[in-house]
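Re: the pair you flagged

First of the two:
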Amino acid sequence: MRLFYLKYENCQTLSGKLSWSHYTELLAISDDLVRSFYEQQCIQDRWSVRELKRQKDSALFERQLYLPDPEVLKQELRRLLEVNDG
């Protein structure tokens, strides 16, 4: 709870779209920028906690830094989803 307060002290209200389990997983990320990225992705793409863990473990943020075009990122994500679903 202390870590939660320290990381989100300026936030009046938290997103009702994320569960406590999401925030627990997000708090494990020490870099504020990276944490914010994953938090926004969770909200925007409606990730489950399981999906958040999977994307975090596969270093989505770091991989995105090396992609020159957002369309390339979308294609890569689609490919990864197809591989994991099939």
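Second of the two:
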Amino acid sequence: MKRSPVQPDISELALGLYESMLDGASLLPALSAVAGRIGASAFAVHKVRYRDGRPVGSVSTGEGGVAGAGLEEYGRYWVRHDPWAQKGMRLPAGVHDISTVVPPEALRRSRIWNEWGRPNDAAFHALGVPLVEEGSSIGGVFFHRREREQPFGRAERAVLDALFPHLRRVFAAGSRLAMPEEAPQYALRAGLDALPDGIALVDEARRLAFANAALRRMAAQEDGLRLGTEGLDVPDPGTRLALARALTAALAAAAGQLGLLPSAGSLALPRPSGRTPWMVRALPVLRIETAEVPTGFRGAMLLVTDGERRSAPAPALLARLFGLTPAEASLAGALAAGHSAEQHAKRRGVSRETVRTQLAAIRRKTGCRRQAELAALLARLPG
């Protein structure tokens, strides 16, 4: 029987994009997280201007690879000679492996590669995502790898395919900030409703401003949480107090009164059914008020995750993120899935000494001194 492909869990990445949009902050940190997920060594956001179907300039920013003054030089001059940009105006919306648009050998023969790209160790492999079109300009994001690095594969393409609707909503909303307030709000609401994790936005008075579709479905189960005008509520008094404290810490951080400690805004909500508890994080939210967006929002975001739904990160992702060998990545994946090192050794038919050696290598490569730190790190990674 042919197995259907597993849809990547991109909820954490999408949430980061919407948080940046809500905060009025730069998208670069959120895009950096996307780049890390797919193993890109660099990324760049471009808004390319075209005249008569040809690129004539670009406003570009990014991280890794050629950045800063290098991207300014690209936008002023080299974009005109970039075969990727020359093809960009004809690309349909979606995710594109640029090697299928401009073959690698054609890129190697190009002037931009020989005079600018190769000397600067610039991008050679790319996944391109055109997102918005404004008159004669097209905006989008490119994720890069160098020539000596492996080309992007199906797994990385699948992550961006799943993330594409969220990227498009966020970029479209950002390009319409001069329009009435309903435009970005509509895009934000639609994007949050598409996430599998529950999200509640609570204002400074602790009133519920918004609950996405996933959270409404969770509350409808009547299994340890509920929704009301006062926001997220739980039946257990002790847990209700812990939730109130987490919300207080997030609101204080949003007001600039203190920094939110990693553990201050996190808690588990027991479920009377006996199923895995709901995992809750309270995060500060501050939208900067500007002339274009006069109605700001300050409060907290409650992120509710179903512990039974979360999948462990794939060994391939762990290998790419931390430079693990296949055997080390397999062990790390088992630990992330909740198995012990001894269980992994028995299942793989290897000695405990071998597994201990692999575990020491994993801790060294991830910078974790203790196994508890490693477990916490793996638990934070997306599946």
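The longest strand covers residues 42-51.

-B.
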